[in-house]
Amino acid sequence: MMHLKKLLLLLCVLSVKGVFGVDGDEVKSVSVMEGDSVTLYTDITEIQTDQQILWMFGPKNISIAQIYKEKDVCNPCGSFKNRLKLDSQNGSLTITNINITDSGLYQLQIINSIGSSYKTFNVTVYGSQETSSRYIWIAAVVAVILFLVAVAVAATVKYCKRNQQTSQDIQEAEAIQINNINNHTKPDSEVTELPVSNGVNHPV
After folding, report:
1. What is the mean pLDDT of residues 137-149?
2. Does a structural domain hold residue 73?
3. How many domains does the chain fold into?
4. Neighbouring C-beta atoms of residue 204, cutoff 10 Å
5. Are 56 and 65 in contact (CB under 8 A)?
6. Verdict on whether the full-model pTM lies above 0.70
């Protein structure tokens, strides 16, 4: 019975980790096309005077926007410049003209006199049709170049092998020709020694 309770507790912990973030804040997935705008909602109807809204981005939780005491301040970093808008009534954050580098985790921290609550958005930005077409065109060009290189290498290897084979054939033909010449050459005739005349005439 005790082991069953432990197993059920473990399953509950695993299921909670699948829905909530590491710090216990809920993670909401948001998908958007490149070039569009996306709004991350705080689910607050109206910001109270004692509430502070803080938006952070990335693994280092860099502050990019906040509302405190009815004053909204945007601190865009990097490519966020002039593309962040804060709703002064509920603190929701809008990112305009979003691009692929804006993908990542956005954390919302709501601070009040009681404590803090968190909410995390996992934003995924997909490439537009134009960007996808550009990547496809680049991939096609690269594929053609690789194909041409492969063909050139194969032709070079074939040409070298053919030249090597031709050279070997020529050498073999020359060797056969020399061998044939040697086989058909007659040996030197023996020289017949003639008798040396001593000046005496022999009678006929």
Report:
1. 85
2. yes
3. 2
4. 3
5. no
6. no
Read off the tokens for 181: 């010449």
Domain limits for position 69: 19-127
Contact in structure between 52 and 116 (CB atoms under 8 Å): no
Does residue 128 surpass a pLDDT of 90?
no
Element containing residue 68 per DSSP (H, E): strand 62-68
Least reliable range by pLDDT among 1-5, 123-127, 168-172: 1-5
**Confidence check: pLDDT of 46 > 70:** yes
Q: Do 36 and 123 form a contact (C-beta atoms < 8 A)? A: no
Indicate the average pLDDT of the chain. 77
Separation in Å, CA 123 to CA 47, 91, 129: 24, 18, 19
Q: Among 100, 127, 154, which residue terminates a domain?
A: 127
Q: Which CATH number fits the domain that encloses residue 77? A: 2.60.40.10
Q: How many residues does the chain have?
A: 204
| Six-digit token string for 172 | 């073999």
Strands 71-74 and 62-68: antiparallel
In a domain, 177, yes or no: no
